[in-house]
Amino acid sequence: MAEPEDAVAIRHVTERLMKAHPQLDAGLVQSSVRTAYEELRYARVRTYLPVLMERRAKDLLPPDEQTKRHN
User: Fold this and answer.
1) How far apart (Å, rounded) are the C-alpha atoms in residues 45 and 15?
2) In 1-71, where does DSSP find H-type helix?
3) Rounded to 10 degrees, what is the CA torsion of 56, 8, 18, 16?
4) CA spacing 20 to 30 A to 13: which of 28, 32, 50, 66?
């Protein structure tokens, strides 16, 4: 389970990505953010955790070109 501070970061990153990619399934976005968090949760420097999580989660999401073709 995420620390309270991390849980807030996870929620904010998820909300930002859902706004940036409204065409994607919310479950897919949430899953990519959770995966990103799990990969980074033991980082020593916590200051940049939200930024790094968001970048990693974006990498896990399908490219925009693919999502446009499927709509």
Assistant:
1) 23
2) 4-20, 26-40, 49-60, 64-70
3) -80
4) 66
Which residue's entry shows tokens 């490219």? 63
Per-residue pLDDT of the chain (71 residues; tens, 9 = 90+): 667 889 999 999 999 999 999 999 999 999 999 999 999 999 898 899 999 999 999 999 998 754 454 54
Cα angle 30, 9, 13; round to 5: 45
What angle, rounded to 10 degrees, do the helices at 49-60 and 4-20 form?
A: 40
Q: Is the pTM of this model over 0.70?
A: yes
Q: DSSP character for 22?
A: T
Cβ–Cβ under 8 Å, residues 68 and 22? no
